[in-house]
Amino acid sequence: MANPKTIVDLAGLSLSHGEGRRLDLPVRLAPLELAGQKYVAPGSVTARLDVSRPSGGYAFRLRFPLRIEGPCMRCLENAALETEVDSREVAQDDTDDEELRSPYVEHEELDLGRWSHDAAVLTIPTQFLCRPDCAGLCPVCGESLNDADPSAHEHDTGPDPRWAKLKELKLEEQ
Ligand SMILES: [Zn+2]
Ligand SMILES: [Zn+2]
After folding, report:
1. What angle do CA 5, 107, 42 make, to 5 degrees?
2. How far is the CA of 160 from the centre of ligand 2 (A)?
3. Among positive and negative, which fits the CA dihedral 31, 51, 61, 98?
4. Dist CA 52 CA 153 (whole Å)
């Protein structure tokens, strides 16, 4: 699943050390996928990119609002989440320190499309729910327990065998 490319030519910004630039750029997002589950994201967003030039490299901040849709992890109903992507990267020119080398920067080019996609995936919560108190599915019949009459799910699973044993003992005592 190739993400549509959005490349920012950093050299073209001609920033001197200590300078910064704010850019609002359209970015196309491919569908987001986490743990085999697909989440629908808006086709395109306007990403706000802050570029600054501390000595010896670049520093970036990326922000955009994001609406994600997908199945609730408990009840599988469609759920939606309004959130905000806020991500930072640094890219030092000459360093062997992996922490200071951004995977999105190469030859003075910032791969904004790929970074936006990865940052969006990271904002998907590990518990993606239709609502915080989602009651999930009934373990017996598999129906959603949200807005369900609790008595409708008191399924008759037969008497607990332990009680039957107890009754037997009582009968023997008499
Ligand atoms: Zn749910
Ligand atoms: Zn049930």
Report:
1. 20
2. 18
3. positive
4. 59
Q: For residue 152, give the ligand nearest its CA.
A: 2
CA 141 – ligand 2 centroid, Å: 4
44-80 residue pLDDT tens: 899 999 999 988 899 999 999 999 999 999 999 999 9
pLDDT in tens, 150-165: 889 998 766 666 666 6
Closest ligand (CA of 153): 2
Which ligand lies nearest the alpha carbon of 131? 1
Q: How many residues does the chain have?
A: 174
Question: What is the Å distance from ligand 1's center to 77 Cα?
Answer: 6
In sequence order, what are the residues at sequence separation of 6 or more whose Cβ sits closer than 8 angstroms to the Cβ of residue 100?
Answer: 57, 90, 91, 92
